[in-house]
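U., I forgot to send this yesterday:
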Amino acid sequence: MKLKTILIPSSLSPDTLLPFSIELKNAEIADSYLFNFQHLGNTEPFGMLFLAAIIRQFVKARRDTQGRDCAISVSNYMGKSYASWMGLFKSFGLDHGNEPGAAPGSGTYIPLTRLLVKRITGDARSEYVHHGEIIEKEAKRIAELLTRNNDGAITETLTYAIREIMRNVIEHGEASHIWYAAQYWPSKNKVEISILDEGVGLLPSLRRNPKLDVVSSEKAIFLALQPGISGIAKEKRLRSAGDWVNSGYGLYMTSSLCQLGGDFLLCNDTHAVQINENESVFHPCSYKGVAIRMVLDTSKIKDLNLVLNELRTKGEALARELGREDFELTASKMSRMLSMNPSRVQ
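Result:
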């Protein structure tokens, strides 16, 4: 019986996890696989979310092709108290530590948490509202828990960023769950929010729009980050959604916010892109779905509506410059402002 040992990296940073995701997918065929956590150190939200997801995907793929007799085991996970507390191990099926979402959270962290998409859409139906309103409430709850503040520029900006990414999952991802985790370091003026799904990914989503020429995951990422791009053709976007109409500005806005002294990472299929205020770089990876890491410099977070208005204006100019007839040249009301509160509209 052939055993393949898979050594988990000591640092779960994007620099190590992106190449590790490829190594994991291409691991040699064996009768059983042992995930060894011997060298794992403390890690941050994205690292734990992404690692748990690629392990889940690896196990499913191998058992689908090799049969249910393909054995999976884990070693050297005892003593990894932070990861256990945050819910890393139970997130990929090991009966150790907290369940996802079980740790209480605080003004500095939110543990690995799984949110059912059916819960969002079900609540929207039962309350006779657009699902955007349910996501808005969830995003605000997460932001307030993380910052211990129900108002202010930081809470407002986090609410906006979380809401826009979750909306993308609900409206385009065809995923059953949204996974998220977060960490706030007030002394470092740094906050990280990581959100991922294991749905269809960007390429199939954007190919639903017949006016877009999308031939690779790399081009799908590039297009998804442009203003006005959506997998739904402009003339078919639901005007009945009112303020919540899909304008294709969500990823453009959130990635632009992160460039103000922070960092934005998006992983999809065979590629990932990392963007900061100085550069954007593509990296190879292997991930089924969309995984996003947003890092913001809280010292540079100002009035959200003013920032969004500036970004929207730049985005609309860029959309016109690129000249794609399917670009929505006017961002929807909900892509410009934080919430449904009329007093916040510019």
